Amino acid sequence: MARMVLVVSVSIIRDDEVLMIKENKSTARDKWNFPGGRIEYGEDILHAACREVKEETGYDVGLQATTGVYQFISHTDNQILLFHFTAEIIGGHLNLQEEEISDGAWIKISDLEKLSHEGLREPKVLMQIIDNLVKEKLHSINLFNKQIL
After folding, report:
1. Is the pTM of this model over 0.90?
2. What phi and psi values does residue 114 have, to the nearest 5 degrees?
3. Which of 16, 81, 126, 130 is the 20 to 30 Å CA partner of 107?
4. Which candidate, 55, 53, 31, places its Cα nearest to that of 103?
5. Phi, psi (5° rounding) for residue 53?
6. Rounded-to-10 torsion of CA 103, 107, 113, 115
């Protein structure tokens, strides 16, 4: 049954490179993506982004900006609302979650556009995000208000 799914993803930027992960999930085997995942019910979007990065990569991050919100129908036929952020490492160390991630690579931002579309998870969406990263089309994180409890 198709449904609406809210997800976050994060471009962890170090110098002029960004961390990409290769997913090892039944729905995305050997596909490159940015660290991220589903927003849990009742969870603040910004907290979800930091939590997902920590779970998947071992890094603690400070969110810097957003490249925007992306809407699409996934290959599993769910309607997805994806909130994408940029971040810097503020702690932790690289420790990829082996059950769900088979590899990680630091890629120059200027080289992201050269990635094979076939090797990307949801390539049309990732290419939109990559285009915004390369062109530095970033928006203030202040667009996101704190969750009202």
Report:
1. yes
2. -85, -5
3. 81
4. 31
5. -60, -45
6. -30
